[in-house]
Amino acid sequence: MANPWIALDHGADPAERIRQVGRAHERFLSGDLVVPQIRSVVAESWRRSADALSDPDRTAPIELGDDELAEYRAAHPLARALPLFRDLLGGLAEDGDHLMAVCDAYGRLLWVEGAGSALRRAERMNFVPGARWDEQHAGTNAPGTAIAIDHSVQIFATEHFSRSVQRWTCAAAPIHDPGTGRLLGAIDVTGGDHLANPNSLALVRATAMAAEARLGSHRLAPAAGFETTPPGVAGRVTALGRDEATLTFGGARRRLGRRHSELVVLLLAHPEGRTGEELGLDLYGDAASPVTVRAELSRLRRALGPELLESRPYRLRAALDADFRAVTRLLEQGRVAQALAEYAGPLLPGSDAPGVTRMRRLIDGQLRAAVLASRDRALLRAWLRAPWGADDLHVWEEYAKVLPPGAPARPLAAGRIRQLAAEYGLATGLQRSGN
């Protein structure tokens, strides 16, 4: 296949492909994890979905009610691009066969627009504003997979992990903050099998690029008293909530491999420089090999260029900022809400390098402690809604304490506390806290 992100080869029979993929999907659900006839991007997504979902027909949950959704999306950066989305995709969404959808970086649908008949069909599978359509909650689908891999992609019919979604075909592209490279969400077009062509993928990619340009031309001035990026910075590394970091430098954005991501993060944490021996311990612990470390650094130098990396000691030559450094700066300034908004997830979560693991625990611990100390209901709720905080029993207990009597969220919080306490072998969360 010439383009791995497009669902069908030129001239392929859609009906036959649906049957072929459907058979592979059933074999996969029966335990055959080898799916050679399936695109690698889909096979990898199926494996992630299977790890996260016990039921392949699970319906995407609705996380944001009407009032919360209105408040959340009004403040979301992609709200500024909504008129552009409607200009570029509105005609397609109004033809009765297609939907336009926008999700945030967690896969929560912010807007779903289209003709009434298409919207009603989508409602049957909870493809509605406020629902969570990341892979962990809805399985393989274009917006969820696009944010998982940070790349535009088509998902065709039976390539969807959930059977209830296999009547649809969709194409989605991720959207980034043009100043920081941070993932903001994705733009998606959903409809029939005829969307499985290069044009639909090109359309959502062009729309995402136009949105990033629009956001870049309307960047808001930072709030008084703090900057998320210090002056004089020449580039930025984004490493929170993703296994492979991205580097924005010289007007270009590149994705780093896993080991290069670890090295760049470690060098950013030590601007004074690091010896090869120190980097070896940071990467491999006691199993470090000087030859292996030198080889990795040599490959990194070739990838970044001499203008970015120097040796003796190893350090980054250019002034680079990073999203995880922005979080710690904001915490130092007491800007807990801004730090939580900047935090896209744990630092390189797939890394087991000792130096990265220490940094990850430190950042997570500092942010969590600040959220708990704030006793701010909105901050506690935001932490619990995020994937890394959904099972945090202590935060659920603190959240329950700040809810006013009679609040609709109190029964939900109490039920979640009992559920987690049982999973952790405790009688109840309230007994654990001594109340």
Automatic annotation (TrEMBL):
Pfam families: GAF (PF01590). This is GAF domain-containing protein. Residues 119-214 form the GAF domain. It comes from the Bacteria. It comes from Paractinoplanes rhizophilus.
